[in-house]
Structures are given as structure tokens and as C-alpha cells.
Amino acid sequence: MEAAKGRRTSSNLLLRITDICKVHSVGVAENVGGKPKGDSIGGSSEDCAHLKLHPHLVSDHESCTGSSTARYEEAVVEKLLDAISCLKLAYVKVQQAHVPYDPEKIAVAGEHFASELEGTSGLKDLYVGVNKWSNPMYQSHVSSKIHERQKLVVELQADICKKDSELVLLRAELEELERSNMELKEKIDQRAMYREKKFDIGRGESIDMFIKLFESSSECIHDFTKLIVGWMKLSGWDLAISKFPIDKSVVYEKRSHKKYGVEAYFAHAMLMGTKEGYFSMDSYHHVMSFKDPFDALMEAPNSAFGRFCREKYLVAVPRTMEDSFFGNLDHRAFVERGGHPRTQFYQTFARMARYVWALLTVARYLKPRAEMFFVKTGVQFQKRHMESVPAKLTKDEAKISVGFTVMPGFKIGCTVIRCKVYLSMLDARDF
């Protein structure tokens, strides 16, 4: 059965070859009123378009089977004969385009002939590919390469998983180190704060003592702000979108200068809007006698200083900030119930609060009384009443104006304690 089929195939191939070889040359002459010679040979070249064979249509899997190799070889020969027929017809079209001479038809026919020739040359690569895939040694070589690449992929995937696990551990370790650094910084600040100064009010030293209190309060607010900014960075807060009461028209010289906006917020929250009943010189002497202000709170939680701490904490530390720092509102709840949390964060706040409370207390008992003042945004900078933060000025001070007040100033009669301001290039107004 197979032998008969093979004989029929060979006979067909011989007939095809004989048919192609019948015409050895094609004469082309102008035939007025009729078809040019050569049109009757095997049909048009368009009829041969379906005979093209694209090498990629033969899959590697099909080519790898030894039983189909002979069938593919026969198919290649069939396609080769078809391609030769189409090539001859394309050449006839080129000849016809010359009689009569038509440059456009010549160009089109030439491109078509080149396309047919390219398709014919592609059969060589197909034939070589079929024979290559029928070679068992080549199949074994390719198979070994595939297994080698698959093994490499598995190893790379395992390495990626290992690196991802290491990255997660390192990130957790980094966060833990950052938190440990914050706690160590708080302890260092706490020990530095233990070097307390006792201030005694005397008739000839009251203004000097008030200036020292002002400097200490300013320094404590600045240090507490540094602590808050560190917590904000650790918790993912963006200083650019935080709801601090700073004029949006302010242009910061550096990105890091946004911390002065946070400092201005805490200075305003701690110094403004305090009840008169929270201040007493008797309480002042008692509270300032403690080395650690938290001990004063533990001794008298509801004293004037204790009530001042509770009120200012609820005002200065927003609910959203506390929740993002600690993941809960335990501090706030404890303070609202009248207590003072024995935590590192609240104790740092209490140290700042004591100096601010002492400053406001003494300000009310000075003669004449100390009056606080702020500078509005856009006011022209004046050295007599203002101090630049950071301490850097441009050459032309006439064009410099106040962006916002970082730390308010005080006036005691004719004595002026300059306020600290952040400067910005705005339209200046008179002070």
C-alpha cells in the first residue's frame, strides 16, 4: 500500500517536471487586439500566490519526528516546482511590460519577480531545517540546551525568592534600628535636659532671667520639633502636605527647611491661648525646684502646671499624628482622663512644656509686663525686631520679607527680645 502510494507520488513529480521543462524559452511580441504570448502558460502569477511556502509554518515538533521527514522532503520538492512555475510566469510579466515599453508596469513586474525569487530561495532554508531536525544528534543537542536553560531558570527563581526574603528581613531590621535610634536620642535629650537651671526672680535680674527662660524655651521647642520630624519621617508623613498653619505662598530655600514650619506650629500651639489660672509664682518656684518636671506632675497631677500640660498636649499633638506614630490613641485617652502617661514621648513633651509654662508665668509678673508679638507674612525684614532662622541673609535685605514667625518675640518696656522668622522672597510690607 505504501509502495503504491510512493510510486504515484514519484510519477506525479515526474509529470510536473516534464510539464515545466516543455517550454524552454518564451518569446514576447506585441499582439494587437489579442493577448500577449505567454499568458496561456500555466495561468497568471497571481494564481501561483497560494503556492508560496513560509518556513515558519513547519513547526519544530512536527519536524522532529523521523517518520514525517520523507513527507516533508516531498512537500518541499512540490513547493519548489510550484515556485519555479510562478517564477517563470513572473518573468513573462516582466517581458510583457517591455512591449510596449511601460516604466510603471516594468517596476511592478520587477518587484513581483523579486518577491517570487525570494520565496524560492526560502525553500532552501526550509529543506536544510527539515534535514537538520531529522538528525538525532541535533535533536539531542537542542534538548540538552533546553533542559540546561530550564534548570538555570529554576535556580534564578530560587535565588530571587531568597533575595526577597533577605530584603524583608533587612527592611524590618532597618525599621527596628531607626526606632532604637529614636529612643536613644530621646534618652540623650532627656539627660541633657536634666542639667536644669534654677531661676530666681530678683528686682535687678528679672529681665535677664526672662531672656534666659526665652532662650531655654526656644531651644526646647526646637528639640521637640526635631523629635517630631524624626517620628514623621519614620511614620511616612509628608511635610509638604501636613496641615500646619503656614502661608502657602512661602517659598522654601531648601526642602529641609520645612521643619521650621513644624517648629512654628508647636511654638504657636504652646504659647498662644493659655488660661490665666494656670500661672502662679508660688507654683513656679515649686515646679522649677524639681530636677525632672515629670516628678512634679506625679506629685500634683492637677496642679496649674499639670493642667497646662494636659491642655497643651491635646492641642499641640493632633489626633492623626499620635495615631500614625503609635498606632493607637492611648496617650490621648490617658490625658483626657486627667492622667500623665509615663512614657518617653510624653516625658519629653513635659520638659518642653515646663519651660514654656515658666516663660509665660514670669512674663505676667514682670514689671512692666512682657508682651508677646508675632510678625505677619510678607512684612519686610528688620534686624531690630527680628532674627533670621536659619541665620543666613542675602545681600539685598530690602527685598527680603518674612515668610512666617518661627518663635514669637517679647517687648518689656523698651527692651525687645527679637522674634525668630523664616524669610522668603515675597512682596514686602512695612512692619
Order of helices and strands: HHHHHHHHHHHHHEEEEEE
Broad shape: elongated
Enumerate the strands of the largest sheet in spatial order, edge to edge or round the barrel.
1-4-5
What is the domain total for the residues?
2
- Poorly predicted ranges: 1-8, 23-47, 49-66, 194-205, 427-431
Helix content: 55-70%
Structural class: mainly alpha
Alpha-carbon distance between the termini? Answer: 114 Å
Strand percent estimate: 5-15%
Mean pLDDT: 75
InterPro entries: DUF641_pln, GIL1-like, GIL1_IRKI_C
GO biological process, one term: negative gravitropism
Protein name: DUF641 domain-containing protein
Organism: Digitaria exilis
What do these coordinates show?
With 431 residues, the chain is mainly alpha-helical. The chain has two domains: 2-134, no CATH class; 194-424, no CATH class. The protein has helices spanning 2-21, 60-63, 69-96, 103-134, 136-193, 206-235, 259-271, 281-288, 293-299, 304-316, 319-326, 330-336, 344-365; strands at residues 371-373, 386-388, 401-407, 409-412, 415-417, 419-424. The strands form two sheets. Strands 1-4-5 form a three-stranded antiparallel sheet, with no helix packed on it. Helix 1 packs parallel to helix 3 (69-96) and helix 5 (136-193) packs antiparallel against helix 6 (206-235). It is elongated and about 120 Å long. Residues 69-187 form the DUF641 domain.
